[in-house]
Design a protein that fits this description.
By secondary structure, the protein is an alpha/beta fold. Helices cover about 40% and strands about 25% of the residues. The longest helix is centred in the last third of the chain and has 17 residues, at about 175-190.
Amino acid sequence: MQVDSTLKAAVELRNISLSFDSQPLFQNFSFELPTEKITAIVGASGCGKSTLLKLINGLIQPDDGEIHICGQQVSHNDQAEWRRHMGYAVQQIGLFPHLSAANNVVLLAQLEQWTESSIQERLSYLAEKMGLDQAILSRFPHELSGGQAQRVGLCRAMMLKPPILLLDEAFSAVDPITRMDIYQYFLRLQETEPRTVLLITHDMREAVKLSDHIAVMQQGEIVQFAPVEQVVSQPATDYVARLVQEHI
Ligand SMILES: Nc1ncnc2c1ncn2[C@@H]1O[C@H](COP(=O)(O)OP(=O)(O)OP(=O)(O)O)[C@@H](O)[C@H]1O
């Protein structure tokens, strides 16, 4: 599944409804993720950010509504296929402890039976862009700093060149200075290899730093979805204004 870069939205949710234990979280929820842009979802704990991400990667099935990926409607039965086109990185990183950093990064490409030369070429490219040298790549996860492990996790998520990248608090486990460095690495890669990114974060400052668009969520609804500058200069509700004031 290739993303046509002229496609307005690489991911589209149409009229999604979802309840947990008869408690509605999403009701008639629609959302479009702009192609080859970074979109941040910001909102308080429990507003539905991670659930939205799980709907997009097929981990959760909506009660009602449609999901379109790269212009095609997908059904829950295709989830294995559609997930192959998505990279996924989370706060907990989840590197395999018995594999070196390099082997963590290349594992999926090996499973996909890429040639050894393509694997090594892709690994070198990502490692260079993310500032990971040979010494770091040969270490095991317990020998890495939090920031190094996060960059390894990002490289792993991007190994197969997924057109869509889902990041759930993927930058939050490190100190602010290391985080700034990782932002720079990440943005450099996004410049050379643009992809459609959904970034889930509590941190409005991170959203402003990294994203093209911000969607602010409150209790299963998007209360503002606009380019970053607009969210900052013209917050649509008091809640968005508070987020902007308190965090920027
Ligand atoms: N599998 C589940 N079963 C029941 N309730 C769930 C389930 N998953 C999520 N919820 C509920 O749905 C709501 C939204 O959860 P979600 O994890 O999407 O929030 P979030 O915005 O990502 O929060 P946080 O920022 O704390 O991670 C919460 O009230 C949560 O308790």
